[in-house]
Design a protein that fits this description.
Layout: H1 3-20, H2 24-28, H3 39-52, E1 57-64, E2 70-76, H4 79-83, H5 85-94, E3 105-111, H6 119-132, E4 142-147, H7 152-165, H8 205-217, E5 221-228, E6 234-235, E7 240-243, H9 249-269, E8 273-274, E9 280-281, H10 289-292, E10 297-304, E11 312-314, E12 320-322, H11 323-343, H12 345-355, E13 365-369, H13 372-384, E14 390-392, E15 395-401, E16 407-412, E17 416-420, H14 426-433, H15 452-455, E18 459-463, E19 487-490, H16 495-506, E20 512-514, E21 518-520, E22 523-525, E23 530-533, H17 543-553, E24 559-561, E25 577-579, E26 585-589, H18 595-609, E27 614-617, E28 631-634, H19 645-656, E29 660-664, H20 699-703, E30 711-717, E31 730-735, E32 748-752, H21 765-771, E33 774-782, E34 785-790, H22 804-812
Parallel strand pairs: 3-4, 3-5, 5-10, 6-8, 7-9, 26-27, 26-28, 28-29, 29-34
Antiparallel strand pairs: 1-2, 2-4, 11-12, 13-17, 13-18, 14-17, 15-16, 15-18, 19-23, 19-24, 20-23, 20-25, 21-22, 30-31, 30-32, 32-33, 33-34
Helix pairs in contact: 3-6, 6-11, 9-11
């Protein structure tokens, strides 16, 4: 058989196979865009394609969601490419080492990271069908990876809600119920987390499982499909400023190349679009920036619609926006992306190889030291990103000091580590560790500071020299618990310590805490030390075995003592050595609370602390007997005067009788002023004395002077306050806004002094004046109970690791 005849037969075979494939509408039994397809039906269609055309479609299940829905990834390419898929992948990854000779373009299309931005999953089915039929030529030199739904739990929550409440036929009037989701909307995942802001922090199971696959491929091009407000036209690249300084000229230019190709198709159809506005490339945890910092051309595409749009809705200018319209737009940019990538496969490979060559960054190494639990938490994150690091057990190193903001040094005699930018992931290292990201524009879409040494509470310097790691043996702790001792002591410094305590309490072991430093049998212990006595647990038959098992699980160093008679400080029978009350916790949901802020608390308890909580919805909260609980958490949100006089009286009575409120962010507004609590909002006059009218277009620039867009501030800590046990004299807080409260009369655990320049990130000049001399975290004694105020959010997006112990202190240490 001649080669020509073989190719002809192959093409005919592919054509016949393509003709036999069912379109999404044919397979589903309804016209695509006339209903929202449930996740299991989407999976069914992809499985059908993989079974019907196995030479060109390969499907893998890469994980499951919290609600047990499958996470799937489809590989789509020519039969020849798919038969050599692993070879193509390996050759592509060699480019990160400068030795690859790949000629294939790798394109990854991610759909529906926000569940109620529901059109993109529908568009994915139309896109894969078109690639296998009319646009199969794109696949000759391109491997397309398609994740049809990053967030199945959120998407099914939305589609099920819409299918339940929509009119038949659907109602385009935007006032209709089908255009108004409730509080528990479909945007976020099971734990109310925004998965589009979790790429770098990897707090969620969807992100963790997806990144394993992403790191196996590191695509040339990655697109994250989104939706925005109903009245907005389509957005595609190039992105808005600020661009992070590490983004290469080629990454910038290729966004323009793609954008012009999209525009060609949109122009032909008379569709409206915009570029270079709103969506910037700075914050590292998005579906566009994270891939960019790994060498991809990362982009966000935004279709007007979201959860408000339903199957069709009247826009502000009187047009009707339908789901079919929205599908057509995402379908067009998706195909255009593959087309341009296929046309530029050689250039993409060449530039990808260049990206991963060693960069001449100012800082060559980041040297860190601190509590071993905090170091281990950071190491765990770095492993998930395939970032290399090394241990340091001794030495002195100079560089930019994170604690002072100036040049300084760090001395290590144990518990140290180094992370170098001289590695394949060097650009990502620079972005995640840099002391202060350079801003080309202060108007940005998200926070402007995130540096990991601050987030993990570690001492660090950024060195302009390469620092070599040392071999350090990792030893497993074997807790010294012999059953004969009077008591067992362990420190309180980290979230791992909090998890240890939580499990002890869950297993019925009674634990005391030290409110003052003490020395016993020649060894010193600090405030917050956990004291587990044999006498407190004499009625628990398996006390020693249980303690031994839990201590080993959490790798806790346990110090046994044969006496409660201390050398200095308070004896173990003193009233200062208090029993830790086992918390019974309620958290408010719905109503005035933010879904995202509620989700952070929910996830903290169930997936980080592993401690039970009761969720009480605002709809019936006034009928709940608070005496069944000793802690009530009020998440951040928009409360205003949410609690009426009767509800405030109920709360105050409960606290006076021994209850504890943890009030976070905006919930403090519901307690301040003349409402009977001691917290007071701080107001200052605007610093501008000019009466000269500003140009209209300067209004946004003027407003930004009063804003803080996620900046890191150095605060003072009173670590004699139980809310601050386990901390030093300073704490770097991530401040997300300029809401400000005065110092309490006493109980100020963490606060800002006069100097309020941010160490990292942007804060407007007026905002800096406003937050001067203000509260960050504090405790107000109220009768026999307490109110804990958390102005800044220690649980923000689950990644500010060093803040979490404050929340644990609020639960276990404050009494």
């Amino acid at each position: 058989m001649t080669r020509f005849l073989f190719i002809l037969i192959l093409l005919v075979s592919i054509s016949v196979s393509a003709q036999q494939l069912k379109s999404p509408s044919e397979f589903l039994g309804y016209e695509l865009g006339t209903q929202f397809t449930r996740h299991h039906e989407v999976v069914d269609y992809y499985e059908y394609l993989a079974a019907s055309d196995p030479d060109r479609v390969k499907l893998t299940v890469y994980g499951k969601t919290n609600e047990r829905r499958p996470l799937i990834l489809a590989y789509v390419s020519s039969a020849e490419n798919l038969a050599n898929l692993e070879t193509i992948r390996q050759e592509h990854l060699k480019n990160t080492e400068g030795t690859g000779n790949s000629s294939k373009a790798i394109v990854w299309l991610s759909y529906n990271v926000h569940g109620n931005e529901s059109v993109s999953t529908e568009a994915s089915m139309k896109t894969i069908y078109e690639l296998l039929t009319n646009k199969s030529s794109y696949l000759e030199n391109t491997v397309v990876l398609m994740d049809p739904c990053i967030n199945p739990d959120g998407r099914d929550r939305y589609s099920n809600w819409y299918n339940q409440y929509k009119n038949t036929p659907y109602q385009v009037d935007p006032n209709s119920k089908e255009h108004h989701e409730g509080w528990w909307n479909g945007r976020s995942n099971h734990y109310m987390f925004d998965l589009n802001r979790d790429w770098a922090w990897l707090t969620q199971v969807e992100s963790q499982q997806r990144l394993k696959m992403f790191n196996q491929w590191l695509p040339h091009v990655h697109v994250d499909f989104h939706e925005q407000g109903v009245n907005n036209p389509y957005y595609f690249a190039p992105a808005a400023e600020p661009y992070h300084e590490v983004i290469t000229d080629f990454q910038r230019d290729f966004q323009v190349t793609l954008g012009r190709n999209h525009a060609k198709y949109f122009d032909a159809n008379g569709w409206f679009y915009f570029t270079k506005e709103v969506f910037d490339l700075l914050y590292p945890s998005y579906g566009d920036t994270y891939p960019i910092y790994n060498g991809s051309i990362g982009m966000t595409y935004e279709q007007g619609g979201s959860g408000r749009a339903g199957l069709g809705v009247i826009t502000a200018i009187g047009d009707t926006l339908t789901l079919k319209d929205r599908i057509a737009h995402h379908f067009t940019t998706g195909l255009s992306t593959v087309e341009v990538s296929s046309q530029n496969a050689d250039k993409l490979n060449e530039e990808f190889r260049k990206f991963h060559q060693n960069k001449d960054f100012k800082y060559k190494s980041y040297v860190l030291k601190g509590d071993k639990d905090k170091l281990n938490a950071l190491k765990s994150l770095l492993k998930k990103h395939d970032i290399e690091y090394g241990d340091l057990s001794s030495g002195s190193y100079r560089g930019h000091s994170y604690s002072t903001g100036n040049n300084g040094s760090i001395s290590i005699n144990k518990n140290g580590m180094v992370v170098s930018t001289n590695q394949s992931k060097g650009t990502l290292v620079k972005v995640l560790f840099e002391p202060n990201a350079k801003l080309s524009d202060s108007l940005t879409y998200d926070i402007t500071a995130w540096s990991l040494p601050y987030a993990y509470g570690l001492e660090a310097i950024a060195s302009t020299s390469a620092v070599s790691s040392q071999n350090a043996e990792e030893t497993m702790v074997s807790p010294n618990i012999n059953g004969q001792s009077y008591a067992y002591l362990t420190d309180w410094n980290s979230m791992e310590d909090a998890r240890f305590l939580a499990e002890l309490l869950n297993q019925g072991i009674r634990v005391r805490k030290a409110d003052h430093p003490f020395t016993v049998q020649g060894k010193s212990f600090d405030r917050g030390t956990l004291i587990i006595t044999k006498g407190d647990n004499e009625n628990k038959e398996d006390f020693i075995q249980t303690l031994q098992s839990i201590a080993k699980k959490h790798q806790k160093d346990i110090t046994p003592t044969s006496t409660g008679f201390v050398d200095a400080g308070k004896d173990f029978g003193s009233s200062s050595i208090k029993m830790i009350t086992k918390p019974k916790i309620a958290v408010l949901s719905g109503g005035p609370t933010s879904t995202l802020r509620f989700g952070e608390i929910w996830h903290f308890f169930e997936q980080q602390l592993h401690y039970p909580l009761t969720v009480i919805d605002d709809d019936y909260a006034n009928r709940v007997d608070l005496n069944d609980y000793n802690i009530l958490v009020l998440p951040d949100g928009r409360y205003g005067d949410h609690f009426n006089e009767k509800e405030l009286t109920k709360l105050k009575t409960w606290v006076r009788q021994g209850g504890k409120i943890i009030s976070m962010g905006g919930s403090i507004d519901a307690l301040d002023g003349e409402k009977g609590f001691g917290i007071k909002k701080k107001e200052i006059e605007n610093g501008s004395n000019t009466n000269i009218p500003l140009p209209y277009e300067d209004g946004e620039r003027e407003r930004i002077k009063s804003a803080i867009t996620g900046a890191i501030f150095k605060t003072k800590v009173d670590n004699s306050n139980p809310l601050a046990y386990g901390y030093g004299s300073d704490y770097f807080s991530l401040k997300l806004g300029s809401n400000t409260y005065e110092y309490l009369d006493n109980g100020n655990a963490v606060y800002l002094e006069q100097n309020t320049m941010p160490f990292s990130g942007f804060a407007g000049s007026e905002a800096q004046k406003k937050i001067s001399e203000s509260l960050v975290y504090g405790v107000e004694d109220f009768g026999r109970g307490q109110v804990i105020y958390m102005v800044d959010n220690p649980l923000f997006r689950g990644f500010w690791e060093n803040g979490k112990l404050f929340f644990a202190n609020a639960l276990f240490m404050v009494d």
